[in-house]
Amino acid sequence: MDTRTAMSPTERDTPAPVGASETTTLETGPARAWATRLVVAGIVLSAVNLRPAITSLGALLEEVRDGLGMSGSVAGLLTSVPPLCFAVFGVMAPRLARRFGPAAVVCAGMAAIFAGLLVRPYAGGTAGFLAASALALMGIAVSNVLMPVIVKRWFPDRVGSMTGLYSMVLALGTSLPAAVTVPMTHALGGNWKLGLAVWAVLAAAAVVPWIPLVREGRERPAPAARSAKASAKAQTPASASARAAEEQPPLRITRSRTAWALAVFFGLQATAAYITMGWMPQIFRDAGVSAGTAGLLLAVTMVMGVPLAFVIPRIATRLPHQGPIVLVLGVCGLAGYAGLYLAPAAGAWAWALLLGIANCAFPLALTMVGMRARSGPGVAQLSAFAQSTGYLISIPGPLLVGVLYQHSGGWGLPIALMAGLMVPQMVVGVLAGRDRTVEEEAAAR
C-alpha cells in the first residue's frame, strides 16, 4: 500500500501502470474485468461475514447463558474468545497465504465460518459451543488479516476507497445481526438456537465468489511463464523497484516502534469493540431497556460505522498525520462512557451514537496498516503482527468486565475500566499515525 513519503495524493489516485507492482497482472480485457468483479464480490461478501458470529451472540447472550447454564464469569470468557482466536490464528495467515494464495485461505475461512455457525448452537453444552465458535472465529481471523493484502494486490491505486468499502460493509455486517437477531428469533418461535444458526446461510454465500479465483489461480499475480517479449514490455523502473521490494527478506517487524504503537492501538480499540459488542445490550437491559430495544441500540452503535468507515480511510490517506482523527474518536468514546455511567437509559440513543463513532477506530487502524508499510509482504507482516498482537492484548478486557460485573453487582466499575482504557488508546494512536514506514524503522535499528 502506498505511503505518504512514496507518492503524492494525486499520484495515489492515478491508476498504476501495467507491471508497476505484483498486484497488476498482464491480463487485460474481459477476463481481467471478470476476475476483478469476482474479487470485489468476494471482498464484500467476506466483509459482511466477519462479525455476525459475535454480534448475533451479543444480542442473545442472556438467552444463551440461561440455555447453557453459564455464570457471568464464563460469559465473560465467551466474549473473550473472539480476540483470543484472532490472536492465535491470525498470525498464521501470512504463511498460509504464501503457500496456498490469499484467495484460497479466505475461501477456506468462509467455509469455516459457515461450519462453525451452523454447528455451535447444537454442539451440546458450553464446551461444544466454545469449540464451534472457535472454528468460526478461526475463519474470521485469517480473513481479517488477509483483506488488506487482497486490497493491496488487486487495487493498489484505490487503497483508501477499497478499504473504505470493505470497512463499510463490515460495519453493516456488524450492525445487521445486532438489530434483527432478537426479532428474527421471536419469529422462529423463540428458539435461540435457530436464531444463531440462521447466520450460517450468509457465510455459505461468501464461499462462492472465491471458488473460481482459487481454481484458476487468479488470486496470485500473473503466471511467471510469460514470453520474454511480454515481460520486457511490462518491465518499467517502477515495476523493477516494486519487484525488488517484494523480494526483500522478511522484516524484523518487532524493531519498529510504529509497528508496536499500531499493535497496541489495534488491541485497545479491539478491547473497546468486543466489550461493546458483548456487553452493551446487557448494560441497557439492566438499566430497564427492553431486549429488542437493547439490540437496536447495539445496531445503532454498529451502523455508525457504515458511512464513517467509508469516509475515514479516504480522509486518513490524505493527511500527513492521522493523530487528529484518533483524538476525535477518543473524545467521542469518553463522552459515550460518561453517559452510560450517569444516565444509561435516559440518553441511551445518544450514548449509542457516540460509541458508534468511537468504534470507527477499527477502519482507521486498517488504513494505517496500509500506510505504514511499502510493499505487499510488508503489509502482510504488519497486518499479521498488529492484528495478532492487538487481539492478544484485547483478550483480558471482556473477561475482566464480566468478573467486575458479577462481583460488584453493577456496571460502575466496568464502565470506568472502559473509559480508562480510552486514554492510552488515544496516546498510542497518535504515535501510530506519524508519517513513517516500518521498513524505514526496521532498517535503521
Describe the structure in brief:
With 445 residues, this protein is mostly helical. The chain is 76% helix and 0% strand.
The main pleated sheet reads as:
none
- CATH top level? Mainly Alpha
**Spans of 5+ residues with little confidence (pLDDT < 50)?**
1-27, 218-247
Helix content: over 70%
Q: Helical stretch count?
A: 24
* CATH-assigned homologous superfamily: MFS general substrate transporter like domains
Q: What's the structural domain tally?
A: 1
Q: State mean pLDDT (0 to 100 scale).
A: 78
Second rung of CATH, namely the architecture: Up-down Bundle
CATH topology: Growth Hormone, Chain: A
Shape: globular
**How many β-strand stretches?**
0
Q: Would you list the SSEs in sequence order as H and E?
A: HHHHHHHHHHHHHHHHHHHHHHHH
Query: Whole-number radius of gyration?
Result: 22 Å
Structural class: mainly alpha
Distance between the termini: 23 Å
**Strand-residue proportion:** under 5%
Structural description of this entry:
The protein has 445 residues and is mainly alpha-helical. It has a single domain (19-222, 246-444), classed as Growth Hormone, Chain: A. It is 76% helix and 0% strand. It has 24 helices and no strands. Helix 5 packs antiparallel against helix 21 (376-394), helix 5 runs antiparallel to helix 22 (396-408) and helix 16 packs parallel to helix 19. The radius of gyration is 22 Å and the shape is globular. 56% of the residues are buried. Residues 1-27 and 218-247 have low confidence and may be disordered.
